[in-house]
Amino acid sequence: MNHKKYNKHLLDFIKNSPTPFHVVANMQESLDAAGFQHLKEEERWQLINGNGYYVTRNDSSIIVFIFGMKPSVETGIRLVGGHTDSPCLKIKPQPEVYKNSYYQLGVEVYGGALLGPWFDRDLSIAGKVSYQTEKGKLQESLIDMKRPVGIIPSLAIHLDRDANNNRSIDPQTDMLPILYKCGNTREDFRSILAKELPPSAHSGSVSILDYDLYFYDCQLPALIGFKEDFISSARLDNLLSCFAGLQALLNSNKQITSVLACYDHEEVGSTSAIGANGSFLESLLDRIYSEPEEKSRVMAQSILISTDNAHGIHPNFPSKHDENHAPVINEGLVIKVNANQRYATNSTTSSFLKNLCKEISVPTQYFVSRAGIPCGSTIGPITAANIGVKTIDVGVPTFAMHSIRELAGANDAYYLFQTLSAFLDIEKL
Ligand code: ZN
Fold first, then answer.
1. Could you tell me the distance, in angstroms and rounded to a whole number, from the CA of residue 267 to the centre of ligand 1?
2. Which residues are placed with Cβ below 5 angstroms of ligand 1, an ion?
3. pTM of the full predicted structure?
4. In angstroms, what is the span from residue 135 Cα to ligand 1's centroid?
5. Which pairs from 186-194 meet CB under 8 Å and 24+ separation?
6. Could you report the per-residue pLDDT of 265-310, keeping only the tens digit for each?
7. What would the pLDDT profile of 169-192 be if each residue is shown by its tens digit?
8. Rounded to the nearest whole angstrom, what is the distance from the C-alpha of residue 204 to the centroid of ligand 1?
9. How far is the CA of 148 from the centre of ligand 1 (A)?
């Protein structure tokens, strides 16, 4: 796959993946088409060397693996990690708010969202809905309204003359999306939702019980800039990495056992049954390597590449970076280093990666946060701690992380794919 074709597929993937549920569903579709088998955690597994498998939890986290031809105790395994979730607005369970003739929905902020950019956007709703059919059966369906159904208008500057200097945002009162003008009529949100279920989901009337629904921006991902240097899109953090990991795994030679873990709940700390700080990966590894000694021997010679976006140096705000460790967009993959273990990279793993990237002519650069600015974290250190695997944290440089629209480099996305592809095919570490 060449660079341009890759980016086109990446943009399509992000467009079709407004929530972690849709990310996993789209990954499943590609995996099914490539002959991967869906394993259920409640069933007995019989793995065949050279075959590919995947397991999901909550339909929003997924672990994909190839059970390699070569014995893992001789080769170790290759692991790649990423996350399926992005900061956004989640609809509350009893969301109806009627104010000044408008029908609005109450929302909770999911993760560390940059709230300002959510104003004046054409918003749609997507996620998972649980309902009871006419026959009393409980069922679930994914929905994506696709069209703009809501908006959070800004307050005009005339009504807040200080807005450009000092406007704070209270998400409880300031960020309720407006759905329509309702006058004095009252409508249950669940009855609105029932009409949005796909026709295949029900025959006859259904009663919606609950849902995990999120607002998202309808603006499509795009290649932008005078020379189309940039990818502009929602959820680049971290669908850009999930897509790169998936494509690399689909293209791998199947000799070595390789694992791709894409977790939900990274943006809220990862501690949950489906998050990186839960039991998902460990339980899967216990089933692949049922002898504790075998598992320890495998882990001791394995490496995890944890992929999550990095902060590129912003030309309007250069003082926010350490000038010697300030990644530039389209200048290569970022190796993330933090003395306090907010990133799990050490000199052994970074040397391994630099060597690998040199061989395939992918440039690398470093990110170390400015002393005095607290460093963000990701799934790398968590996974390293839980399964004891040597880890390197990498990512592509981006602007506007956690905004409703983020910016990455058209070259860097492909560099990440090339790096992960080369990594999964290394026969001996
Ligand atoms: Zn991230």
1. 7
2. 237-238, 308
3. 0.96
4. 42
5. 186/96, 186/98, 187/96, 187/103, 188/96, 189/91, 189/95, 189/96, 189/105, 193/129, 193/143, 194/131
6. 999 999 999 999 999 999 999 999 999 999 999 999 999 999 999 9
7. 999 999 999 999 999 999 999 999
8. 41
9. 26
